[in-house]
Design brief:
Length: 618
């Protein structure tokens, strides 16, 4: 076994029999690190509650949800929860919804009051989505569009776009729901089921269709690995560039002067992942849970790295430090203090969550690029024993953010930047942070928020599985008072049969009365949708051929004035503010100038300063 000393004091043991920690540990698989549902859209007043919190809190965009979380949309409010790269749950006003269970092949949510839609453009094979309501359980195993509305005495459920589901009532008898049907379940103890033809699309349905269409057609999806959420926001809030060292990178627009990654947001305690970062930016999901941040002078840019078959979620991609007494006094935050910095290109993460064999071990889960330690590219068969690792961005002025321990996990970060920290002033913390969370650590912000009516919060639902209960570090210290969400235990029914035999299930009776809906008109012809051609101008016969050519000759647009300044190559898009007035790094990612036609070609550009490949190890 050879021992090689690497820059920065890092000891790397090279042996053919060694296996990298990330490759040997089964926790690196996506199944072991499930992607949590994401609160992806908030319109008007909405509230959030997590078991163990002191009260309902204002809902925050990009909050990762965990089993037990509850959401309530107030008056004239709408919410959107992204549950897959092409799957969304949307909630209308005066609606309460909660996440009950989350497993690799199963998701269980409950709807106690109001209206919700489940738009599944794609669903993994073998995946089951269950929606629990007070009157019935609805099991979905196929892509489609589904809409549920819970009233006092009945639940309405509609299937569209080829989707079909299974309904199970309190008597335990599952029944099929065919595509383009509406099912109505009356009562709870002695339920009565009727089905009707699905009604015409209304404004709510059309809004759901339009939002999903916009999200799944994002241009940014071509640059990131499959399964990453929030890529449509990258289209609206930044620009993709290609630089030699990192490939495609995303440069955000309209950043405040001196901004650095992981400086504007909150640290929140997740019962599964532990400390999790929630950024304040509307685009703050993908760049803070995947990839790496790089600095191409003078821009911060997010590098997703090479595309891999399946992405892997992380609660944050940072390195934590203990701040020494001398530096903490110098920056005026006191001791004990904790700091963090964004991981650079290819640098490993030291997990603070998971089982003991997974924590405190270098992890490159979900990273398809080179593995870099102290600017040295290492091989996958290299075992890393960290003694004094120096992270690339920790040397950058003002890139390390630090707060006092008493402020960490207590709402929005108001940290201090370390101007020029020395390596000996930062003690790397690998594994769990020595900071104990509390009830205020469960929400990103505290304050006045709309609360659901007591009738909706305390309403029981029908379910096939018991809810997963989160174990909190301070569970024994929680006050013995009535919880904020006093919902009784759900009533359980047997789950429906598997998908391969579900089509043989009986169907409920149809509704009575006359025609349920008028006959649909025939689809329009393509010729009817094409714009009409303008009439050809008539030419007098005496004008001859020359006059006819002049009449049909197109007028060329005026040539630009020679005094007009030509746009520089790589100039930012019109109307968008950038951190500096200088041109963006690299070249356009799509090979075109912004807002130009497909035939345009981009001019060669010089690489930005510092745009170099990491040094290759031997």
């Amino acid at each position: 076994m050879n021992l090689q000393c690497i820059k920065g004091g890092l000891l790397v043991l090279l042996a053919a029999t060694c296996t990298a920690a990330a490759g040997a540990n089964h926790d690196t698989t996506p199944e072991a690190n499930p992607t949590p549902p994401r609160l992806s859209f908030i319109d008007a007043s909405a509230s959030f509650w997590r078991p163990g919190a002191e009260n309902w809190a204002p809902a925050r965009l990009n909050t990762p949800l965990t089993p037990g979380d509850e959401l309530y949309a107030g008056e004239r409010a709408n919410l959107e929860i992204q549950i897959g790269a092409r799957a969304f749950v949307r909630v209308a006003e005066k609606t309460q919804v909660g996440l009950v269970n989350l497993e690799p092949d199963f998701m269980q949510m409950k709807l106690t009051a109001g209206q919700a839609s489940v738009d599944l453009r794609a669903l993994p094979v073998g995946f089951t989505f269950e929606l629990d309501t007070p009157h019935a359980v609805f099991t979905i195993e196929h892509p489609g569009y589904y809409r549920a509305e819970v009233a006092d005495n009945a639940t309405h459920f509609i299937t569209r776009r080829g989707g079909h589901a299974t309904v199970t009532t309190a008597d335990g008898q599952p029944q099929n729901i065919s595509p383009s049907e509406e099912i109505v379940v009356h009562g709870t103890d002695a339920p009565v089921i009727e089905t009707y033809v699905a009604p015409e699309l209304d404004a709510w349905d059309r809004w759901n269709y339009a939002r999903t269409d916009h999200a799944i057609e994002a241009v940014s999806a071509r640059y990131v690995s499959p399964g990453i959420y929030g890529v449509d926001e990258l289209d609206r809030y930044g620009t993709w560039r290609v630089v030699p060292s990192y490939g495609p990178v995303w440069v955000p627009d309209r950043l405040a002067p001196g901004w650095v990654p992981y400086s504007t947001g909150s640290w929140v305690w997740d019962p599964y992942y532990g400390w999790t970062w929630i950024d304040d930016a509307p685009w703050g999901w993908a760049p803070f849970h995947y990839g790496r941040w790089v600095f191409v002078d003078p821009f911060w840019a997010w590098a997703p790295g090479p595309v891999i078959p399946r992405s892997v979620y992380a609660p944050a991609l940072v390195a934590f430090f203990g701040i020494g007494h001398g530096v903490s006094v110098r920056i005026g935050i006191g001791t004990p203090a904790v700091g963090w910095v964004a991981l650079g290109w290819g640098e490993p993460l030291y997990p603070w969550w998971g089982r003991p064999g997974f924590m405190r071990v270098p992890w490159w889960g979900g990273w398809g690029g080179p593995r870099v330690v102290n600017k040295i590219v290492i091989q996958e068969t290299t075992a890393v024993n960290v003694q004094n690792i120096i992270y690339e961005h920790s040397r950058r002025p003002n890139a390390v953010v630090a707060v006092h321990d008493s402020q960490f996990g207590k709402g929005p970060i108001h940290g201090t930047r370390l101007a020029t920290p020395e390596p000996h002033e930062l003690t790397h913390v690998g594994g769990a942070l020595p900071i104990k969370p509390g009830p205020t650590s469960l929400v990103a912000r505290t304050g006045t928020s709309v609360r659901p009516p007591e009738k909706a919060a305390s309403r029981s639902v029908l379910a096939t599985r018991p809810p997963r209960e989160a174990t909190l570090p301070w569970q024994a210290e929680v006050r013995k008072e009535k919880p904020i969400v006093a919902a009784p235990a759900p009533r359980f029914v047997a789950p429906p049969k598997q998908a391969d035999v579900s089509r043989a299930l009986p169907r409920p009776s149809f509704g009575n009365g006359g025609p349920e809906r008028a006959r649909r008109p025939s689809p329009p012809r393509l010729q009817d949708l094409k714009p009409a051609r303008p009439p050809t101008p008539k030419v007098p016969e005496r004008a001859g051929r020359a006059a006819e050519e002049r009449a049909t000759l197109r007028v060329a647009p005026p040539s630009p004035s020679p005094r007009a300044a030509a746009p520089k190559a790589g100039a930012p898009r019109t109307g968008r503010a950038t951190p500096e007035s200088r041109a963006l790094p690299g070249r356009p990612a799509n090979g075109l100038y912004p807002r130009e036609g497909r035939g345009a070609k981009s001019a060669p550009q010089r690489s930005a300063p510092g745009d170099q490949h990491p040094k290759q190890g031997r």
